[in-house]
Design a protein that fits this description.
5 helices, two-stranded antiparallel ribbon, mainly alpha, 2 strands, single chain, 165 residues, extended
């Protein structure tokens, strides 16, 4: 069995980034005892959060498709569950068999070839890997910040009883 060393270079490993998100999502889930209190509460603070500071970089916030904190909470929990259980469970729950999924993928590839889309023949697997790895790091870092923000906001609001109507 391979052991993961505790080198400082591991600080930026994919496993470390995934563990940070999972810890933030678990903390959020343990802290938010009554998720229904998040309904109809806008995602952003009322003061208007113009940007998020992350690792000394200021990133402008992107308007979210989630309408309230409750939907955002459900999204973060869903992503955490997908990471824990994998996407196969979700696809199997949708009723499609593995054979049906393989046939659908083959049909998509044939459609792409007919329309002039170059096939993904794996000629640059290393480039594809690094492209997706970089994207995964970015997404997980943002999701971790969002889970922490949601948890802290819930604590602030509950402490001030602002959720109570």
């Amino acid at each position: 069995m391979m052991q993961i060393s505790s080198d400082p270079c591991n600080k930026h490993s994919l496993l470390n980034v995934m563990n940070r998100f999972m810890a933030a999502a678990n903390n959020m889930d343990e802290t938010i005892m009554v998720p229904s209190l998040l309904r109809d509460v806008p995602l952003e603070d009322q003061e208007g959060q113009e940007s998020i500071s992350h690792n000394n970089n200021i990133e402008p916030t992107i308007p979210s498709k989630q309408r309230d904190m409750y939907e955002h909470y459900l999204l973060l929990k869903s992503i955490r569950n997908d990471m824990e259980w994998g996407l196969l469970k979700r696809e199997l729950n949708s009723g499609a068999s593995l054979l049906e999924m393989a046939v659908k993928q083959e049909e998509q590839q044939q459609h792409n070839e007919k329309n002039g889309v170059p096939p993904e023949d794996g000629s640059d697997l290393e480039g594809q890997f690094h492209y997706h790895l970089k994207g995964l790091f970015g997404v997980l870092a943002k999701l971790t910040v969002q889970a922490d923000h949601l948890t802290n906001r819930y604590k602030r609001e509950i402490g001030g009883s602002n959720f109570m109507r």
